[in-house]
Amino acid sequence: MENKMTLKNWLPLIGLTCAAFIFNTSEFIPIGLLSDIAADFSTTEARAGMIISVYAFVVMLMSLPLMILVSKIELRRLLIVITSLFVVFQMLSGMSSGYGMLMLSRIGVACTHAIFWSIVSPYAVRLVPEKMQPLALGMIATGTSIALICGMPLGRIIGLSIGWRMAFVCIGLFALALLVYMALVLPKAPSCGGFSFHKLPVLLKNPLLVGLYVLSFAVATSYYTGYSYIEPFLKQVAGMGEGMITMTMVVFGCMGIIGSISFSRFYAKNPFRFMSIVLAGVTACLFVLRPAAEQMFAVIAVCALWGAFFTASNVVMQSEVINVSPQDATSVSMSIFSGIFNLGIACGTYVGGSVCTHMSIADIGYVGGAMALLTLIFWRRFVMVRFRNALRLRHM
Q: For residues 152 and 78, which has the higher predicted lDDT (pLDDT)?
């Protein structure tokens, strides 16, 4: 019975999956509403887009200090508090009367986001039997994928229909309903213990953990070098129409679900081979992106595989950060992971933009692929060896 899922396991896990969906939808939704926001505040789309950039940088910079600040709080209470604040800041975004108010409210949402992604995965694995932990992590990744599939498009539809403010309000109302549900079904889970900045050197002396951090930065940078500009790539290089581009992006998200399911089913059987395959898959997809653009269905297939491989690699890294972290520092380790991953997103977006400016948008796959190949080599030559030794010790 200890290795079987019961209703008592499923109900809170579903709540956390829905929370992952709503937090990520909130992050993505301004992308589809920038033109309306800019027009409403009589500003440029570039200035309006700063709410997206500032959001990412706040998550990157505040994940660690905020998590250290709240590291002693029991996890259920902490999740309820940050979800409540999330609702408040979402409503403030919907009531924004000026650009400054919108920016401040988005900074508030980003701070709740930073804490949420530091605790959601460690909390999820505590809710289920040990052998079901890959399933728990896979469901959290599924919530993120569903946000990509329908969260952002749905928010855009609401925004275009009844105003961009109502898109934020609707997210807040959904989060409020979810808050009530989680308050009813989430069990208490003690914090992982207090943590302070003076303990960081000890945490960062773990060579496998540091290797995973470097790996997460490299994976995010190589992936977002291409992914950040996939929409104009599909339009300009592959010659797709708006409808086909939208469909391709939906396929991206759907295949992310396949990637998370694959992790749940196959990772534990041979973790080294699984991670090597998904990193090689990301590398191959980036390298063949430009040649595949010559044929519409070929490039759709490449994007589909790309989404599955990347999601699987991301869940692997989260799982192993949790596994190799000291028990009293799991949430802090995940906060560092979140910050480093967001730094990788920012760097990848910058590299991709530089490729578009100084080379050609058609080359984003080649540049991203070269970086992904170096990432694969780093995994095989440095991280995997330490990873194998740690896994042996774990099962002794």
A: 78
- Condensed to tens digits (0 to 9), the pLDDT of residues 84-97 reads 999 999 999 999 98
19, 143 in Cβ contact below 8 A?
yes
Q: Show the DSSP H helices in the chain as ranges.
A: 7-28, 34-40, 45-48, 50-69, 75-94, 99-126, 133-146, 152-162, 164-185, 200-203, 207-227, 230-236, 242-266, 271-292, 296-324, 330-358, 364-378, 384-394
| Rounded Cα distance, 232 and 349, in Å | 13
Q: Which amino acid is at 272?
A: F
Dihedral (C-alpha) 16, 17, 19, 24: value to the nearest 10 degrees? 140
% of the chain residues with pLDDT over 70: 91
- What would the two tokens of residue 7 be? 């209703």
**Residue pair 330/281 in contact by the 8 Å Cβ criterion:** no
Secondary structure of residue 343 in the 3-state scheme: helix
Query: DSSP label at 131?
Result: G
Backbone angles phi, psi at 195, to 5 degrees: -145, 145
Q: Model pTM?
A: 0.78
Q: Which of 343, 362, 342 is nearest to 352 (CA)?
A: 362
Measured on CA atoms in the order 65, 71, 76, 81, is the torsion positive or negative?
negative
Q: Tell me how far CA of residue 91 lies from CA of 29, 101, 294, 350, in angstroms.
A: 14, 11, 45, 31
Cα gap 286→280, rounded to integer Å: 10
Query: Residue 248: what pLDDT?
Result: 83
